[in-house]
Amino acid sequence: GRDPARVSILSSDNGREFSDKLVSFDLSPSTTLKLHKGDITLWSIDGSTDAIVNAAEELMLGGGGVDGAIHRAAGPQLVEACREVPEVRPGVRCPTGEARITPAFLLPVSHVIHTVGPIYGKHDQPEVLLANAYRNSLKIAKENKIQYIAFPAISCGVYRYPHNEASRVAISTIKECSDGLKEVHFVLFSDTTYSVWLESAYELLK
Ligand code: AR6
User: Fold this and answer.
1) Active-site residue numbers?
2) pLDDT averaged over consecutive 10-residue blocks of the chain (206 residues)?
3) Using an 8 Å Cβ cutoff, are 34 and 94 in contact?
4) What secondary structure does DSSP assign to the chain, as a single string?
């Protein structure tokens, strides 16, 4: 019994947005999904109830891709905060599909939520682990009073998850689990990722 998503295409110069190609979908009367093309390290809403999600690895000590970009932009205090997260077993601070939270230091948001997506081809049911990564990131966000959250395309780089499948898992999980948040954003780095996400959003939220 939910209204179909109301879709609006906004211009890039509305004064608050940092990136181009913003498209907005209503997930519910109180939660909006926004898709951008851009660099997630530049994203923020208010600096106090906002968080970006990092596509990390299980030891949480940085790496390439968006993880490297987030650590560079946050400064060296971020890796120190990650070191303080206890290892659940040797070499693992955040098991695949789970999430952890730290402050964001020099980034313009209040927190970084670190999650680990599946390495595509390594697990039997990658879609379950990818959905868990989104679900657990949203859960830890709400537990920490976050109202605005931005995700990258988890597992879609080094971990080689096919973009079309990943976008469908990402958007359907967010549709199910985003109640209580004001805005959920995707900040997609490339034109191709952005257009795949946009197509899936129109399909799944229409
Ligand atoms: N803003 C937004 N998205 C970005 C940015 C950015 N600044 N930079 C890259 N992306 P990846 P994974 C996109 O490889 O596949 C790391 O080494 C990128 O184009 O960062 O989950 C970790 O330490 C792609 O679409 O993450 C892990 O070892 C998406 O972010 C491993 O990579 C995710 O690509 C995790 O691999």
Assistant:
1) 67
2) 42 49 94 97 97 98 97 98 98 98 98 98 98 99 98 98 98 98 98 97 95
3) no
4) -PPPPPEEE--TTSSS--SEEEEEEEEETTEEEEEEES-GGG--SSSSSEEEEEE--TT-S--SHHHHHHHHHH-THHHHHHHTSPPSBTTBSS-TT-EEEEE-TTSSSSEEEEE-PPPTTTSS-HHHHHHHHHHHHHHHHHHTT--EEEE--TTSSTT---HHHHHHHHHHHHHHH-TT-SEEEEEESSHHHHHHHHHHHHHHH-
- Tokens read off for 150: 């931005």
Quick check: ipTM above 0.95?
Answer: yes
* Ligand 1 center to 40 CA (angstroms): 10
User: Of ligand 1's atoms, which has the minimum distance to the CA of residue 41?
Assistant: 7
Residue 141 near residue 179 (C-beta atoms within 8 A): no
List the residue whose alpha carbon is closest to atom 5 of ligand 1: 66
Q: Whose CA is nearest to atom 14 of ligand 1?
A: 157
